[in-house]
Amino acid sequence: MCSDIIFAMIQFPKNFLWGAATSAYQVEGNNFNSDWWPWEKAIGKQPSGDACRHYNLYPQDFDLAQSLNHNAHRLSIEWARIEPREGEFLQTEIQHYIDVILALRARGIEPMVTLHHFTNPIWFSQSGAWENKRSVERFFRYCDVVTKALAPYVHYWITINEPSIYASHSYIFGAWPPQIKSYWKTKAVYDHMTWAHIQVYHRMHQIYQEMKLSKPAISIAQHLQAVVPCTDSLRNRWAVKLRKKWFHFGILDTIARHKALDFIGVNYYSRQMVDLTGWGPGNFVHEVCQNNHTPCRKNSLGWDIYPQGLYLVLKDLQKYNVPIFITENGICTLEDNERWEFIKEHLKSIHKAISEGVDVQGYLYWSLLDNFEWAEGFVPRFGLIAMNYDTQERTVRESARKYAVVCKTGILQ
Ligand code: FCB
After folding, report:
1. What is the pTM of this model?
2. How far is the CA of 8 from the centre of ligand 1 (A)?
3. Using a 6 Å cutoff on CB, does residue 164 contact ligand 1?
4. Which CATH number fits domain 10-412: 3.20.20.80, 3.10.20.740, 3.30.70.20, 3.30.300.20?
5. pLDDT digits (tens, 9 = 90+) for 46-76
């Protein structure tokens, strides 16, 4: 692994949140009112189907998380279950998520709830999804209903998961539904998501006040890579600056200016080696080094493993002066010892940032279980817990047991 950081005593702060993350569509199964469902069938990729049947098996999964000493868990709510047709909210589904959250609380596990994790209801997609400016009021209405129901049980919220990844994969690379390639549409989507977060943030705080509940902590989960110039050319340096501005700080700056940022959720996986061959907009937006100049270990999807980059990202975020939670960090691999190495090296990087004054308050490994990895299907194995998708059997991996010791003691040996 490309890590050169050496540490002495690795002790994390008291009250640190330790656990793992999931998202509804990736684990629940049978989300047939969500836009990914017909899309999977249409393009003929591996469908999500039953996934991990977590919709029914969540008590068993949370028992495992508890046995692994997790004191926090990030989950998401499937909008299409709550509002399968526009304006029609299903009380039974809202109650389901209340039960899920109470099941976590009963096990001493703090929930962190995401309201939007990549998938939309089919009706929302059919009416232009996030390209349509009415997306803001539609999302607002859904969040209003959910917050009023869940506020008594939830303190930590993520409104939108990785707006930049949603926008780029769906509207620049055309890899995810609706498979469009348009910078203008990308900008519209990004702007609507940003504005939706700001409005929802303020409404949620208002609901807590009206219900006389203590203030919640609300943010987005931001996908952040270590953006590193491959060679020290003017073009590369400019590209690094612009990419950080567009993909890292742009949305954070805007929502911080609108006082809609209680903490920052960091999803960190990898690095991006910037090496431009031209001055065109495409070069600046996504061109990366093709020459493997500074090779690294990779995960099974070919992403560079670069733990020291997490330290760089955290230092960059210090200027916002709000707490930080690692809301996702993980590796897909068939070699479980690589997973423990990965966790250990990233925790060291986090600890180094903490020791330099960065206020990191929690770490949520991606993911609790192997699950449905979007366009890649079930092949990548990110889980602390291995899934047998034929039998739905769960098996706790050795890395999970090693991580459990850190979760219990707050000490990394
Ligand atoms: C993140 C997503 C998450 C998962 C991991 C591997 O970008 O938020 O759902 O797919 O990547």
Report:
1. 0.96
2. 32
3. no
4. 3.20.20.80
5. 999 999 999 999 999 999 999 999 999 999 9
